[in-house]
Amino acid sequence: MNNYINTPHLFPTATYAVEDVLTLKIGEQEYNTTLTYNVFVKTEKKPTYDVVIERSQFLVNGEEIDTKFLSISHKYMEAIFPLKCKVKDYVLSVTNISEIQQRIKQVDNELLATYEGEGLEHIRSHFFKATDTPEKLREFIKQLHIVKALSFSIRKFAPDTHYPLQWNILPIGLSFWKGDIEKRAESNQIYYEPKIANAQEMMDKVITYIHKQEYYVEIEQENVQMYTNFVHQTDYTGKTGRIKRSETNVTIEVENIFLYDQKLTLTKK
Questions:
Q1: Which whole-number Å values give the CA distances from 69 to 60, 198, 212, in the listed order?
Q2: What is the chain's percent helix, strand, coil content, to nearest 5?
Q3: In terms of Cα–Cα distance, which of 16, 89, 3 is closest to 53?
Q4: Are 99 and 85 in contact, with CB atoms under 8 Å apart?
Q5: Are 250 and 229 in contact (CB under 8 A)?
Q6: Which of 207, 269, 214, 202 is nearest to 242 (CA)?
Q7: CB 87 within 8 A of CB 150
Q8: Which secondary-structure segment (H or E) carries 209?
Q9: Nearest CA to 124 among 109, 139, 136?
């Protein structure tokens, strides 16, 4: 039975400034990226949805996107927003999948009329491989880091504190974490510090990716160690689910081989 919760106090209307800082290091190659944008969460009591999530003012390292490769990727991603959702069993459930598919199709037609070449085909094939059915598109949206961060805010109200979580480690794949949400009523916070549940799988994915992409990395030790860390904290403004500040820190490191270090912050404007 679908247990939809039509409670606007879970997601009150608010605008958040988002900062997503990522360091990715593979061997001697290091990439540092800072994404900033605004997220507008609006409560609307409609028959098919009661929350709208919009994204705007997207910048990469403080600048607007001005390269062909990033521009194509950005246009496909922009077609996903706005998201229209209901809260089902204290989880965000996207209800406008068909509408999003139409927007993606329109953007795809515009890009095909504007660009050509291997770059477009590479991005296009990867994007549609992940989103070309309603089920895939729903899962793709579910794994977006901003959706994960917003979903944390509902856990303040969920009766079950156990919270298994997936987090997409770009470009390696999904990491799985298990732990309990700590509800701190006095400080009006939730705190989450789970343990990774698929460490060996992630290790194998890292090694496979390095070899597949032909990075020059010397793996001298037969049994290299992996360090993992996940810490999330949401501070609320009051009795509702409105976020004052949210911070998620994720680290996966394979010594001298691979480092993924991410800090995702939401701050109420």
A1: 13, 32, 21
A2: 30, 40, 30
A3: 16
A4: no
A5: yes
A6: 269
A7: no
A8: helix 199-212
A9: 109
Residue type, 104: I
Tens digit of pLDDT for each residue in 217-231?
776 656 778 999 999
The model's pLDDT over 134-181, given as tens digits with 9 standing for 90+, comes to 999 999 999 999 999 999 999 999 999 999 999 999 999 999 999 999
HSE value, Cβ hemisphere, 13 Å, CA-based, for 146 = 25
Count CB-CB contacts under 10 A for residue 52.
19
Say if residues 178 and 164 touch (Cβ distance below 8 Å).
yes
Reported pTM: 0.94
Averaged pLDDT score across all residues of the chain: 93
Q: What per-residue confidence (pLDDT) applies to 2?
A: 47
- Total H helices, total E strands in the chain: 6, 13
Question: Which residue positions in the chain have pLDDT lower than 50?
Answer: 1-2
Q: Is 35 exposed, middle or buried (0-12, 13-18, 19+ CB in 10 A)?
A: middle
Give the single-character DSSP code of 240: S
Which residues, 6 or more positions from 207, have their beta carbon under 8 angstroms from its beta carbon? 219, 257
Q: What is the pLDDT of residue 1?
A: 39
Q: Where are the beta strands (DSSP E) in 44-107?
A: 51-60, 83-88, 91-94
Q: Fill in the amino acid letter for 100.
A: I
Which amino acid is it at 209?
A: Y
Give the DSSP H/E element, type plus range, for residue 192.
strand 189-192
Cα separation, 11 vs 241, whole angstroms: 6
